[in-house]
């Protein structure tokens, strides 16, 4: 069953081991939010983390689902710094999810198999999955298994929502306690000197996104205009629709913990927990 979920950014600078001490204050607010997400996830004790990432193994017009034996990755920072992590993949849950998605008519691809038909040893993890997992899986005993999911942006909103519902249903049928990690950075046009330039839509998108989370109203995303989403330069929209679908199956209460845009992109941390959980932490800057 779905017992916990979160929205977590994936900027590599969040991992303190990757940056010099002089740069640590720049993302301190979001780093504290990520650490809080890790504490809350450990309290929930999921067996498997299902990561919805906008990066990773992207397959045109499909949703890719990891069915490898494991998943691992290395992230490099400044001055030769690096971190690495490795996880066992929950193959049974991944295959159950694949079957449900296929039955619902959602184009999906299992990644990856060897020529003899056996699951490949490892799925490579990039920053989209590894940064959230670095915080959220940290210190969990036993370590949770993972399933890594990457949606194509060409899929319809109906298909993305249906896939999220299938995620929670697959966990229910497998008798698995899962948490969904929605890896998501917000608008990427907050600074003139950023790699994508300045877009005023990034700020308006981030405000609307934070309000939708705080108001427990992710259904609003279903009606947002395509040109507005494109203008925001975001990579949060598609996997958040999948999260919305999962929450339609198993409702959880949202807690927006932090938001900031200390560089050219916005970052929000939010936890989704059962109704009987009470928020004990909330620090955020205005979504501007």
Q: Layout of SSEs?
A:
Blueprint: E1 2-8, H1 28-44, E2 48-52, E3 63-66, E4 70-76, E5 82-88, H2 91-103, E6 108-111, E7 122-124, H3 127-136, E8 145-151, H4 157-174, E9 178-183, H5 200-214, H6 226-232, H7 237-249, E10 253-260, E11 267-273
Parallel strand pairs: 1-9, 2-8, 2-9, 3-6, 4-7
Antiparallel strand pairs: 1-11, 3-8, 4-5, 10-11
Order of helices and strands: EHEEEEHEEHEHEHHHEE
Specify the CATH architecture. Answer: 3-Layer(aba) Sandwich
Determine the number of helices (DSSP H or I, runs of at least 4 residues).
7
- The tally of beta strands, per DSSP, is 11
CATH superfamily: LigB-like
Class, according to the CATH hierarchy? Alpha Beta
Q: Beta-sheet strand percentage?
A: 15-25%
Largest sheet: 8 strands, mixed
Order the strands across the largest sheet as they lie in space: 6-3-8-2-9-1-11-10
List the defining traits of the structure above.
7 helices, eight-stranded mixed sheet, 32% helix, alpha/beta, 23% strand, Protocatechuate 4,5-dioxygenase, Chain B, 288 residues
Structure explained in plain terms:
With 288 residues, the chain is α/β, with parallel strands linked by helices. It has one domain (2-273): LigB-like (Protocatechuate 4,5-dioxygenase, Chain B), CATH 3.40.830.10. Helix content is 32%, strand content 23%. It has 7 helices and 11 strands. The protein has helices at residues 28-44, 91-103, 127-136, 157-174, 200-214, 226-232, 237-249; strands at 2-8, 48-52, 63-66, 70-76, 82-88, 108-111, 122-124, 145-151, 178-183, 253-260, 267-273. The chain has an 8-stranded mixed sheet with strand order 6-3-8-2-9-1-11-10, sandwiched between helices. A 3-stranded mixed sheet has the order 5-4-7, covered by helices on one side. A hairpin with a 6-residue loop joins strand 10 and strand 11 (267-273). Helix 5 packs across helix 6. It is globular, with a radius of gyration of 18 Å. The mean pLDDT is 94.
């Amino acid at each position: 069953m779905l017992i916990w979920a979160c929205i977590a950014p994936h900027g590599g600078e969040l991992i303190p081991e990757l940056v010099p001490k002089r740069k640590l204050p720049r993302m301190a607010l979001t780093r504290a939010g990520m650490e809080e997400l890790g504490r809350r996830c450990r309290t929930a004790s999921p067996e498997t983390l299902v990561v919805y990432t906008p990066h990773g193994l992207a397959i045109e017009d499909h949703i890719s689902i990891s069915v490898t034996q494991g998943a691992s990755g290395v992230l490099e920072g400044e001055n030769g710094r690096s971190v690495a992590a490795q996880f066992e993949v929950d193959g049974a849950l991944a295959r159950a999810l694949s079957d449900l998605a296929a039955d619902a008519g959602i184009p999906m691809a299992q990644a990856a198999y060897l020529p003899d038909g056996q699951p490949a040893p490892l799925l490579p993890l990039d920053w989209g999955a590894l940064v959230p997992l670095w915080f959220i899986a940290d210190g969990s005993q036993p370590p949770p298994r993972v399933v890594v999911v990457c949606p194509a942006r060409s899929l319809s909103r109906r298909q993305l929502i249906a896939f999220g519902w299938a995620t929670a249903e697959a966990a229910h049928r497998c008798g698995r306690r899962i948490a969904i990690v929605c890896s998501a950075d917000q608008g990427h046009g907050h600074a003139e000197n950023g790699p994508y330039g300045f877009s005023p839509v990034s700020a308006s998108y981030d405000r609307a996104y934070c309000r939708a989370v705080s108001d427990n109203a992710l259904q609003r995303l279903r009606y947002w205009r395509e040109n507005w989403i494109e203008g925001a330069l975001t990579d949060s929209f598609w996997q958040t629709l999948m999260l919305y679908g999962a929450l339609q199956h198993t409702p959880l209460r949202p807690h927006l913990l932090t938001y900031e845009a200390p560089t050219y992109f916005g970052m929000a941390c939010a936890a989704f927990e059962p109704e009987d959980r009470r928020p004990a932490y909330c620090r955020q800057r205005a979504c501007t």
